[in-house]
Specification:
This protein is α+β, with helices and mostly antiparallel strands and about 160 residues long. Strands 1-4-5 form a three-stranded antiparallel β-sheet. Strand 4 and strand 5 form a beta hairpin. Helix 2 packs antiparallel against helix 3. The longest helix has about 50 residues. The radius of gyration is 33 Å and the shape is elongated.
Length: about 160
């Protein structure tokens, strides 16, 4: 081998090493860029969730006031005061609806993931809701307060007693 070919082989070897190193740096840069992009998306989603539910605690307290207003309306005699309380209550409920708060449906069957059973009574079918003690509300997919309900338990025949 001549000195020229040795030098060429050495240069080719250094070029190959430099290309390998450059490819490694390029891969590393792409990974860092992808990680940063994922971080940016994750923090944007977390911030959106935080903003969406930031007022949830306050809304839960306001729901207690709305319940008090409903109780006052049920006991008040017809008067201008009752009409005023009704108007304020309606405005309060419209405000809550504009913030994404909706009442949880209590018609139909009891769902332990959504409803809270305070007591049971005998009925024809299991898990029918027969009475609502306190309304429940959700904000988006998050439950703010479970509805508190009375649920039926099917009558058992005398021979079908639980053991």
């Amino acid at each position: 081998m001549t000195a020229k070919s040795e030098k060429k082989n050495e240069c080719d070897k250094k070029l190959q090493e430099a290309e390998t190193k450059a490819q490694e740096y390029l891969d590393m840069a792409r990974r860092v860029q992808a990680e940063f992009d994922n971080y940016r998306k994750r923090t944007a989603k977390e911030n959106e969730e935080f903003r969406k539910y930031a007022a949830a605690d306050l809304i839960e307290d306001v729901l207690t006031i709305a319940d008090d207003m409903e109780r006052a309306l049920s006991f008040a005699e017809d008067s201008e005061l009752k009409n005023g309380i009704r108007a304020i209550h309606n405005n309060l409920m419209k405000l809550l609806q504009s913030r994404g708060v909706t009442e949880i449906d209590v018609s139909g069957k009891f769902d332990p993931n959504v409803h809270e059973a305070l007591c049971t009574c005998e009925g024809e079918n299991d898990n029918d809701i027969v009475e609502v003690f306190q309304k429940g509300y959700r904000m988006g997919d998050r439950i703010l307060r479970c509805p508190k309900v009375k649920v039926t338990k099917a009558k058992q025949e005398e021979g079908e007693q639980d053991v």
